[in-house]
Amino acid sequence: MSDYLPHEIIIEILTKLPVKSILRCILVCKAWYSLITSPNFIVRHLNRTVLSSKIYHPTLFIRRYDKNGQNEHYTLHREDETFGVSFSELEFPFKIPIGYFRIVGCCNGLICLSYDLFGDMTTIILWNPSIRKSVTLPKPSKSKSLHMFVLGFGVVPMTQDFKVVRIVYYKGFFSGYEAPPNVEIYTLSTGSWRSINSAAPSYCMVEYMWSQALVNGVVHWIAYNPCFEFGFCSLIVSFDLGEEVFHEIVLPEALAGEIATNLSTSVFRESLAVIKYDKEIGTTSCCVWVMKEYGVADSWTKLFSIHLVGTLEKIIGFRKNGEVLLSSRSCKLVAYDPKMGLIKDLEILGDTRSFHVDTYMETLVLLGKSKR
């Protein structure tokens, strides 16, 4: 084909192919292997895939840990009427002695996994299941024994470079954590960690079941200010992966006085969202707030409340059709319609704390990289 078609036309055709077809094209000849594994082609294919995912039905991946505590399962579900009925299972290649991986985030085909059950013995992996490749990150700098840390993961939209941010808090001499924390950045293109000089906020992130929300290349976490005049003040701390700077986002007045462990960040239809639970453990109700105009505090809007006594465990994610995906106390993942107040059993069983839902797309990221 290359003898008859211009090089640019070949690239245009190949970038429109699904990942499985492109992987077969690698075997055609050395020239195509060199083309397809080049960073420019991978980014070009990625940009087209991102655009297509906004037009057509996206895909969600669901992680669960089976009830007998033996295996992690990762399944892909189309965001259409077949959701919960038809799915494909990803091969999970990693083994750990106890527990399961924490999912830091999923972005443009990469899933960031952290095995941090034993604190300092942290293993962080960037995994692309569609091409069955992964990169194990080098160990960050040695931390003091008494510390806690928070991770963030995402991509810089302008450069399509992936980054992991690690924020480490050290225990003070008497109580609490020293401020400010240490901040390190891992960049996939360089394959190394580095400390940054950007001033880290003195606030503490929520250690208990911390979660991130990635919106437009900015990672968001719930945090609290322990030195607030009237006790604790909850807020959102964000980190711009491109500029590598921290910012603060004020919560709606109804949430600012809430205990931080009752709050969680999320993404609702590409907008920053906050979920407020009535209590940390044994919750019976929650409400969802969305920042309709990013960065504008007055645009916080309460979307709906959920009251499910004896059923609700945690909100896991949101579907494109408006349904809320919940983990239930009966160890099931269920879909809840907030308008009708109806629950649909998805027949997906697992440990309630292991459920994770995120958007997913097949990409070539990590193709050509050697495993570290």
Report what the structure shows.
With 372 residues, this protein is mainly β. Helix content is 12%, strand content 43%. A hairpin with a 4-residue loop joins strand 15 and strand 16. The strands form six sheets. Strands 12, 13, 14, 15 and 16 form a five-stranded antiparallel sheet that branches. It has a domain at 7-48. It is globular and about 65 Å long. It has five helices and 25 strands.
Please write out the topology.
Elements: H1 7-15, H2 19-25, H3 30-36, H4 39-55, E1 59-65, E2 72-78, E3 88-90, E4 102-107, E5 110-115, E6 123-128, E7 133-136, E8 147-156, E9 161-170, E10 182-187, E11 192-195, E12 204-205, E13 213-215, E14 218-228, E15 231-240, E16 245-249, H5 253-256, E17 263-268, E18 271-277, E19 285-291, E20 300-307, E21 312-318, E22 324-328, E23 332-337, E24 342-349, E25 356-360
Antiparallel strand pairs: 1-2, 1-25, 2-3, 4-5, 5-6, 6-7, 8-9, 9-10, 10-11, 12-14, 13-14, 14-15, 15-16, 17-18, 18-19, 19-20, 21-22, 22-23, 23-24
Summary, kept brief:
The protein contains five helices and 25 strands. The protein is mainly β. The chain has a domain at 7-48.
Largest sheet: 5 strands, antiparallel
What is the count of DSSP helices, taking H or I runs of 4+ residues?
5
Distance from N terminus to C terminus (CA atoms, Å) equals 35 Å
Radius of gyration: 21 Å
Ranges where pLDDT stays below 50 over 5 or more residues in a row are: none
Task: Please trace the helix and strand order, writing H or E for each element.
Answer: HHHHEEEEEEEEEEEEEEEEHEEEEEEEEE
| Backbone structural class | mainly beta
Total strands: 25
Give the % helix. Answer: 10-25%
Beta-strand residue percentage = 35-45%
Shape: globular
The average pLDDT score comes to 85
